[in-house]
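REVIEWER CHECKLIST
Item 1: Sequence provided? yes
Item 2: Single chain? yes
Item 3: Sequence as submitted:
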Amino acid sequence: MAKDIEFIEEERRHWGKVFTDITYAISEVSPFIDENQLKRRRYFSKVTILNEYMDKLNSKELDSKKKSFFDRLKGDDSIEDLRDFKSKNSSSFKQLESCSKCQCLTCAFECKFKSCSSCKEGSLIKACDKEKANVRIYDTFNIDLTNNDSGQINKYKVLAIVENCKLDKLYILLENLYDSDDKLILYYYPGIKSDNFGEITDSEEFDFVVETFQQSDY
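Item 4: Structure as written out by the authors:
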């Protein structure tokens, strides 16, 4: 039972902060942005799941405190339904954690970027200048690329995606999973079935992407 109480307390500390950060953000930005825009934010519709989880944690803690000393020694599986709830809603939990760290969380500017519409699970905006560029990072986002000369397929992790809203372009920064010296910066064209990439031939554009990424303090 002691482990159950420890689990509940740790979960409430972690997810309680996420819940507080998101609910506070909603109350902060709601007076300044259109309601429809607020509803399009990923965290707006998913925060109810976290609210339900917090209620479950509080209920389980209250139940455990009502148990006798000997009942606590026996232990039980009272937290299994908590784990089941998290498992069934794992995608939402992961998204909410990302949202709580995202630069978009409390932003009330009139957004000029793709914002939540281009959000993948486990991604967040690391940096945004509100005007021209932002930098999106990922927990895990790997892609396979074929070398046109050798025909060899290499696996790359996505370091970041830079968006230039002035030019309406996306750039992807890649690093070979097995050779950290092998890095690429390409145009990025996400598709429904597959993504496409292109070589950046403009040196100023290339330098802009590098500088924007470096300034994001990745």
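Item 5: Key structural point noted by reviewer: The chain has two domains: 2-101, 115-215.
Item 6: Recommendation: ____
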